[in-house]
Amino acid sequence: MQLKKLCDLKTYEVGVIERVDTPEEVMALVQMGCCIGSEVEVKHIAPLNGPMAICTCGRTLAVRKEAAAHLWVRVATEQAEVA
Asked: What is the CATH code for 3-82?
């Protein structure tokens, strides 16, 4: 199973959060639903290292890339989505 940092996902990539590093730094995100086992989809990435918009638990959140670097995601594959 290959994990990627949330900040490294591309627009429209979907995955499941598998690990949260230093949770005290991302506590606000965890409280809004970015916790282990939650599905997350990248909706938009701002240019020039700006924030990214993600959708999780029915909400769209703006997340700084520095915070997204602490969330590790198992990216959904085409085959897993069909199965």
From this structure: 2.30.30.90
